[in-house]
Every structure is written in structure tokens, then in C-alpha cells.
Amino acid sequence: MQKVDLKELYTWCSIPVEKLVDHPDRKIPFRLVDNSEEMGQVMALDLVDEIRKASNENRPLRAIVPCGPKCWYEPFTRIVNEQRVSLRHVTVFHMDECLDYEGRLLPRNDPHNFRTFMERYFYGGIFPELAVPDAQRIFPEPCKIDLIKQQIAESPIDITLGGWGQDGHIAYNQARRHPYSALSLEQLRNSELRVQENNDDTILALAQRSLGTAYQFVPPMSITLGIKECLSARKVRLYSDTGAWKQTALRVALFSPVVAEYPITLLQDHQDALITATLDTAKHPISEHPEWEFRGVHA
Description:
Elements: H1 6-13, E1 30-33, H2 36-56, E2 61-65, H3 73-82, E3 90-94, E4 96-99, H4 114-123, E5 137-138, H5 145-153, E6 159-162, H6 185-189, E7 194-197, H7 200-210, E8 221-224, H8 227-230, E9 235-240, H9 247-255, E10 273-278, H10 279-282
Parallel strand pairs: 1-10, 2-3, 2-6, 3-5, 6-9, 9-10
Antiparallel strand pairs: 4-8, 7-8
Helix pairs in contact: 2-3
């Protein structure tokens, strides 16, 4: 697997946060917001604007939507309800779902059950007369892979919203590190909806973030839309407000050549992609400690 160069990585991580937005070497559009509250409002409006545009043009809207970030559900619900924004013409393809070690869906109240979360926080607060119809809520399940692929292929996707992981994975499209089955950049680029095992670092990152590092309770498998499907949308908008967990992947996304080690770099090939991050996510400790020295970089 092609990897980023260590010295280049140090250079990218050394850039002060205030220089990111207008940096001459930045390879993808970048929007900086102050905090999670502001990002939630921005993310909600990004989707509402697309919904309104489609409605005004009397056409359906097809969107790929993630389970996180979580900061946008309250403002989205409030805007839709207060401004009477109908979602009846919207079809939502949910980005991914966690699975147990046998590839089965999780119990309904498992904290990593994305469908339960979305039904509660994305759909649950919307007035019934405005809500996305049940038949237009497409949740990924292992038994429905061929059907969902067919549904996605029927018509173009208008917008993909999402976050990114510690290795720059979009949905659960991680950098594959299997010792006997390496994944090339082209295979990653053309990946489609599938069931897979999750990488060890993804499991540990999720455990540290939400379960007190009790990795034993983190689902070891997932079903995910592929990079091909996620980036097939007319617009791609990625967001993060989770700070240190995402800082290095953001720097790689902004400055690295396209590389399989960080799937997010494939956004560079998209005609209309935008990354949004909070100030805490855009900072980097290396940029704040120029006195640090690393073997392989300085000696």
C-alpha cells in the first residue's frame, strides 16, 4: 500500500491553523468554523439548501447521509419544522452500519446501532407531514446489498454528506492493511457496497472515543457504501468536529497526493468537494511545538 512520506507529513502537520484556508499548496476546498455548534448549523443548511433547490425545480433529491457528525441533527430538525421544509421528495441512502463478528446487524439498543440512532435523532423529531417517507429511507443490510446497489444505480446521487475517520476513511472505506490481500488505489477508488472486517485502529479509536476504551464492545465488522458510490454524488461535503482524532487525516486530505493510506485524498478527483472542520479539528500539536524533533525527519 502506498503511504505518505514522513517528511512531507511533518511539513503538513507543521502548518499553523490560521494558514490552512488560504494556503497555496492546499489541494481541496476547505471551510473553517469556530466550533461544533457553528458546524452543526452549517451542515444542516448545506442539506436544507439542496432539498429546497430540488423542490423548487420540481425534482426528487437523492442523498447519502452519515450517522455522524452528531452536531447537525438538532438544527436540521429545527429548520425543517420551523420553516416547513418538506422532505417528501427526498430519498436517503444511509452510509454504513456496524455488524457483529458474524456479520449480523446489532441489537436495537447497542450504542453502535446506526439505524436506531438515525431513526431517533435524524427522523424522529421531524413533523410527520414533512418527513421522508419510510420507503425512501434506505438502510444498508447484508441481505439487501444487490437491491441497494440497484437503487443507487437508478439515478444520480445529488449530495453525499459525511465525516472522516482517523485514517481518512469515508463511510467505512478504511485503508486496507490485510497482510495477504493488499488493496490498490484503483481498487479503493472503485469499491462498492460490501461487508468487511474493520481495521484494528478503527476499533481502538471508536473504543477510546465512546466506550472508555472498552474495545471488547466495539463491533468488529461493518457494511458500507463504497468510495465509488459515495463519490458518485454531484456534491460531496465532509465535516468534522471531533478534534484530535481527525487532525492528521485532515492535513493529509488538504496537502497530500492521492494515496491509498488515506482514502479521503480521493476527494481531490471530485469536481465539487468541500471539507469543513472546527478550529479544534484543524489545529495540530506539531504545528504548536516547532521544538519537537523526530528521527526520520530531523535526523
